[in-house]
Each structure stands twice: as structure tokens, then as C-alpha cells.
Design a protein that fits this description.
The structure is a single chain. The protein is an alpha+beta fold. The chain folds into three domains: about 35 residues, no CATH class; about 180 residues, FAD/NAD(P)-binding domain (3-Layer(bba) Sandwich), CATH 3.50.50.60; about 180 residues, D-Amino Acid Oxidase, Chain A, domain 2 (2-Layer Sandwich). It is about 25% helix and about 30% strand. Strands 8, 9, 10, 16, 17, 18, 19, 20 and 21 form a nine-stranded mixed beta sheet that branches. Strands 5, 6, 12, 13, 14, 15, 22 and 23 form an eight-stranded mixed beta sheet that branches. A four-stranded antiparallel beta sheet has the order 1-2-3-4, with no helix packed on it. Helix 1 runs parallel beside helix 8, helix 1 packs across helix 12 and helix 3 crosses helix 12. The chain binds flavin-adenine dinucleotide.
């Protein structure tokens, strides 16, 4: 049986068929269009993106607003499947800007709390971070400023001399005298090491799991996966229900999302979609100010190579008795130990020559074996000859979401709360960024970070931004 109801509201004819409402919008006396209204579900907040930043944000939002209906969604089939899973999963508080120092130092302390006090193993291992620096780099004013700011913030670090490094890292080639290849490649000889003992590596899947599980315990709404947002629902505020609105003279606000499976409404939409943010902000005219760059990792196993086992097992840097996350002086090449696999993950923070992209594409997820062979391997094996002949057993690629000053963005504009721009270090900032996003949502002037330190909630916004430029990006 069909139940039909007809009502007029403003300039609209509302037709209701079995409870489903259709609207004929009439302007200047003529019927112009028909579309479905008000069948959409409504939430207080929808968090789009279940990477490390989305799950952390969803958790703090729900924790501090227990009565709010908060929906977490992602287009993939589980949490933490995109760039979070592609990362080198290393965490450091050794940044040059005091903002990044604060974001990472408090997040890392929270990760330790989760692992040691809550008993949720994040496989956080304090391997330390070791920057190998040339004389020239060590004496550069940017490195002096970096060390000065770390001292001021109470970040632990230590300087090793070349002689100390040669003893501790017997596999290090610290002498390029007469080496024509090294000269051709512009490789700078190692003179110093800058070491941070509070840094390390963890398992990003376990980190995402922590926030996701804690969120699910307190949330009223089951997270939804396999749901892709196609558009943000920008509407006039208040709505006058005129065809063609919002007009320029109206205030506007995002009131929800249009997905591949229908429209969902919310007071606030959180965008934690990293390297894809521009895809949703551009069409509504918000300049997200981020760019993407492809980054790749290659896995080398020590296998039966004694020199690689020896390098993995160097003593003196940490309690684990392993080589730290190590950054070479030249070409942006770095490696981290992977103790469970008895191997290394090799990466490179290349600069000029690697294109910035506006949005991450599928092609950016494909690692380039020639990149390892021709670009990374010659540098790596020159500084650490133990890698000579070693070939990757695995590799993957993803994208960094860069902000112009390499400091993350957290801002709330027109009903959209954006959390992105982590510039290659989102995992190590995930806790602080989730707390800041929550403080902004609740209209707090300050966000309290783990351990009680405070930061103005709008510091990372676009309009009221108050940050130093970050120079230590890997
Ligand atoms: C090779 C590499 C190495 C890295 N190393 C480190 C490191 O050592 N330490 C560190 O801290 N960071 C590192 N990073 C950076 C780190 O991975 C990111 O900063 C972090 O993962 C960002 O988290 P996110 O939640 O913003 O993004 P993501 O994990 O990418 O999550 C975004 C989510 O949004 C979803 N999404 C996108 N568009 C839509 C849509 N339209 N509808 C619905 N869902 C959508 C995606 O499916 C995805 O799940 C590395 C990154 C790479 C690529």
C-alpha cells in the first residue's frame, strides 16, 4: 500500500511516499527539481580516515564528549591500511622546531605509557636515532640552532666524535680519502654523530589498534569501512531551502558527507585523510595547502652475511644492543634495524628531482627497484660496505603529506576539522594531534598533551598559525 502525504514548506512542495520524503523546489512559481531529503543518518561528528591520525582523533573526541554520536569511516576495509602501514614506523623527538619537539616528545611518552602501564605492546623499541654528520654539516648554523632548541626543550641528545663512532660502528667507512667514486657522488665524510636515546621504532598496526579498540569501547556507533567519501556536503547556514543555494551572500557550512553509499550528516566532519585531503577540500574552495611526495622502503635481510649481523648487533647505543635508526650524511639515505626479521629497512628522503604531487595516486604506491639499485644502494654500500651485494627481499611505497613549514595542520573551518600535513612524521605525532583536534572541537583555548604540557589549540591552524619552520625532515 502506498501512503502519500503532500505539504508545502517555504517555496517547496514536500511529497512523502511511505515515509520517504521528496522535495519539489519551486522558485518564481515554477517547479525546478526533485530530490530525496531527510532520509540521511545524522551524527554529531563523522571522522573520515582511520589512519593513525583519524583513530587517535576519534578516540579523544569520544573520550571527552561521551554523549556525542561519533562515526569513524574509511574507504579501506580496516583501520590503518594506508600510509600508516607504509611507514618506517620510527619515532623521534629530535626536531628543530619547538612545536614538533612538543608534539613528538609528548606522543612518545604516551606510547611508553600505553606499552608499560596499560600493557598494550606497541613493540616500541628504543633503538635511538643517529645522525651521521660531516664536519661542515655539524658546524652549520641550522644544526647549531637544532641542538640549541633541543637543549632548551630538555630533549636528550649526545654527540659522538669520529673516533668514538669508528669504535662503536666498526662497519662504518669514515674515510673517503682518494675514493673517486665517493667524490663523484659528492659523499661527505662522517665526522660526528648526533644521537637521541629516547627515539626508536614501533609497530604502527599495534598503535592504530590501541586507539581503535579504545574508541570502540566507548563509542555508540560501529565504525564503517569500505565507505568512500566522494564529496563534502556544503550547505547554506542557515538553509533557506532555495534551489541553487548556497549563494555567495549566504554563510556556508559542511553538514556531512556524500559517500558512494549515500549521504551522512554531521555537525562536524573531521578530515584525517592525509595525502588525499585536497580531493575533498578543493571542490568546496578550501585551500588545504598540502602536497604529496612519494616515499619508498626496501627490506634487506642479514641472512648469512656476517657483516650485516655484526652491524645489526653493534653495542653501546642502547639496551637492545643494536644499531640505531641511522641517517647518512649524504643523499638523504637512512636505515632502521628490524630486529624480528634480522634485517634493515632502507629509505631515502630525496629532495630535488622527486616530484611533488597534489594528491597521492595508485602509481605512488609502487616501489621502484631501479631507485634502490641506482640511487640508494651506491650511497649505502659506500658508508657501510656490509651492504655490498645485498638485494631487497621486499619493498613498498607510500606518500608523505607535506605542509609548507613541515609542521602539521589542525584547523576547524566551516564545519570541517582537518588533521593532516604531518610531513613524514604522523605516527610519532599521532597522540598530540588527536588531543589538539579534540580541544578545537570542544572550543577549548588550549589542548592538554600527555604529561600535562599545554599548547594553544589554534597553533596548528592556517589562520592563527604560530609555529617555527621545521628543518629536520627525513
Ligand atoms: C615510506 C614512508 C615512511 C614513513 N616513515 C615514518 C616514520 O618513520 N615515522 C612517522 O611518524 N611517520 C612516517 N611516515 C609518515 C606516516 O606514515 C604518516 O604521517 C601517517 O601515516 C599519516 O597518517 P594519516 O592517518 O594522516 O594517513 P593515512 O594512514 O594515509 O590514513 C588516511 C586514511 O584516509 C582514508 N581515505 C582517504 N580518502 C578517503 C575518502 N575519500 N573516503 C574515505 N576514506 C578515505 C584512507 O583510506 C586512509 O586509511 C612515513 C610514510 C611513508 C610513506
Amino acid at each position: 500500500m502506498i501512503r502519500l502525504e503532500v505539504t508545502w514548506a517555504a517555496a517547496n512542495l514536500i511529497l512523502s511516499v511511505n515515509g520517504k520524503r521528496f522535495r519539489w523546489a519551486c522558485f518564481s512559481g515554477s517547479i525546478t527539481e526533485a530530490f530525496i531529503v531527510s532520509t540521511e543518518e545524522t551524527f554529531d561528528v563523522i571522522v573520515v580516515g582511520a589512519g593513525c591520525l583519524g583513530v587517535s582523533t576519534a578516540y579523544y573526541l569520544q573520550k571527552n564528549s561521551p554523549d556525542k554520536k561519533i562515526l569513524l569511516i574509511d574507504r579501506t576495509l580496516a583501520a590503518g591500511q594506508s600510509n600508516t602501514a607504509m611507514s618506517a614506523a620510527a619515532v623521534r623527538n629530535m626536531f628543530a622546531s619547538s612545536t614538533n619537539q612538543l608534539l613528538t616528545d609528548t606522543s612518545i611518552k604516551y606510547f611508553e605509557y600505553v606499552q608499560n602501564e596499560l600493557g598494550h605492546n606497541l613493540f616500541f623499541e628504543k633503538t635511538g636515532y643517529l645522525w651521521l654528520l660531516s664536519e661542515e654539516q655539524f658546524n652549520h648554523e641550522s644544526v647549531k640552532l637544532w641542538m640549541e632548541r633541543m637543549k632548551k626543550s630538555g630533549i636528550n641528545f649526545k654527540i659522538y666524535t669520529k673516533d668514538e663512532l669508528k669504535k662503536m660502528l666498526p662497519g662504518l667507512n669514515a674515510n673517503f680519502a682518494g675514493d673517486e667514486e665517493a667524490e663523484l657522488m659528492h659523499l661527505q665524510e662522517v665526522s660526528y654523530g648526533l644521537f637521541g636515546s629516547d627515539c626508536g621504532v614501533l609497530d604502527p598496526t599495534r598503535l592504530v589498534e590501541h586507539y581503535f579498540e579504545e574508541f570502540k569501547k566507548i563509542s555508540h556507533i560501529k565504525p564503517r569501512f569500505g565507505l568512500e567519501v566522494k564529496k563534502l556536503l556544503l550547505e547554506a547556514d542557515p538553509k533557506l531551502d532555495l534551489p541553487g543555494e548556497p549563494f555567495v551572500w549566504q554563510n556556508k557550512k559542511v553538514n556531512g558527507i556524500i559517500t558512494d553509499k549515500g549521504t551522512l550528516r554531521a555537525d562536524v566532519v573531521v578530515l584525517a585523510i592525509g595525502a588525499w585531503t585536497n580531493q575533498l577540500l578543493d571542490p568546496i574552495g578550501i585551500d588545504g595547502m598540502t602536497k604529496m611526495k612519494k616515499r619508498q622502503l626496501f627490506v634487506i635481510h642479514a641472512e648469512d652475511k656476517k657483516e650485516l649481523h655484526d652491524l645489526l648487533d653493534v653495542k653501546g647505543f642502547n639496551e637492545l644492543g643494536c644499531v640505531p635508526f641511522t641517517i647518512l650524511p649524504s643523499a638523504g639515505v637512512y636505515f632502521r634495524p628490524q630486529l624480528q626479521e634480522r634485517g634493515f629497512w632502507i629509505g631515502c628522503g630525496d629532495t630535488i628531482g622527486r616530484a611533488y604531487k597534489y594528491i597521492q595516486t595508485d602509481e605512488d604506491m609502487v616501489p621502484e627497484s631501479a631507485y634502490y639499485e641506482n640511487s640508494m644502494y651506491p650511497v649505502l654500500s659506500k658508508y657501510f660496505p656490509a651492504f655490498q651485494g645485498a638485494r631487497p627481499v621486499n619493498s613498498w611505497a607510500g606518500g608523505y603529506c607535506y605542509s609548507p613549514d613541515r609542521i602539521p595542520f589542525v584547523y576547524l573551518e566551516y564545519g570541517v576539522l582537518v588533521v593532516n600535513g604531518a610531513s613524514g612524521s604522523g605516527i610519532m605525532k599521532a597522540d598530540a594531534l588527536g588531543r589538539i583536534a579534540d580541544a578545537l572541537y570542544r572550543g577549548e583555548a588550549e589542548a592538554e598533551l600527555y604529561g600535562g604540557k599545554k599548547i594553544p589549540a589554534k597553533t596548528l591552524s592556517i589562520k592563527d598559525r604560530n609555529v617555527e619552520i621545521e628543518s629536520v625532515i627525513i
